[in-house]
């Protein structure tokens, strides 16, 4: 294995370990800021191409907005299924919903994860292993990074890893085809925000 490949594998392992061992121990009120800053530092250190200038930005916004519309529609449709509503009602939600929606999700989760996995790991992985295997690597790492979250929420670990891994693959395709991380960021944001808003709405309805 070449040196660049070893470095990429080490980065993937490091991201998974950090997600599983370090992130859960961070102070909740500071976690979002720490994640956001860490993502920015990693992007700068690896010279990640974020794609925030035209024409990449324009393409990213178009692709991301389209994906976000599909995701939002899917979540709205799924909310009509009784089993899904029950799962939303049983979901443990943060005490400060506004902070969750406006800070933790967009900056502590979406920004941090996209620049780390689709940005740094995805781009370095493509250079070291080729586009397809690099995409697989970041998708697998992304899936494994959610093991701690699944355990904390009492959700099936294997299912969570598979679902988030597939999501990582799709997000990577959006980034590659648009040339901008804005595309997967918008799609990722739609997934998390629509799910959060749906759960909040279901629980408030039931409480009434």
TrEMBL record:
It comes from Mycolicibacterium litorale. This is CAAX protease family protein. InterPro entries: Rce1/LyrA-like_dom, UCP026622_CAAX_protease. Residues 99-192 form the CAAX prenyl protease 2/Lysostaphin resistance protein A-like domain. Keywords: Hydrolase, Protease. It comes from the Bacteria. It holds the Pfam family Rce1-like. GO terms for molecular function: endopeptidase activity. GO terms for biological process: CAAX-box protein maturation; proteolysis.
């Amino acid at each position: 294995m070449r040196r660049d490949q070893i470095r990429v594998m080490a980065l993937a392992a490091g991201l998974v370990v950090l997600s599983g061992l370090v992130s859960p121990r961070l102070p909740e009120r500071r976690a979002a800021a720490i994640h956001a800053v860490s993502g920015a530092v990693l992007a700068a250190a690896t010279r990640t191409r974020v794609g925030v200038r035209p024409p990449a930005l324009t393409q990213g916004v178009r692709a991301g907005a389209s994906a976000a519309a599909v995701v939002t529609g899917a979540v709205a449709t799924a909310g009509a299924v009784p089993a899904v509503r029950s799962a939303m009602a049983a979901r443990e939600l943060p005490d400060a919903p506004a902070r969750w929606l406006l800070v933790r999700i967009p900056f502590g989760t979406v920004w941090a994860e996209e620049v780390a996995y689709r940005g740094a790991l995805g781009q370095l992985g493509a250079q070291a292993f080729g586009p397809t295997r690099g995409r697989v690597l970041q998708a697998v790492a992304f899936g494994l990074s959610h093991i701690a979250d699944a355990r904390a929420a009492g959700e099936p670990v294997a299912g969570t890893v598979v679902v988030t891994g597939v999501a990582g693959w799709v997000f990577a395709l959006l980034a590659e085809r648009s040339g901008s991380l804005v595309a997967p960021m918008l799609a990722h944001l739609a997934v998390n925000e629509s799910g959060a808003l749906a759960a909040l709405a279901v629980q408030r309805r039931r409480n009434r």
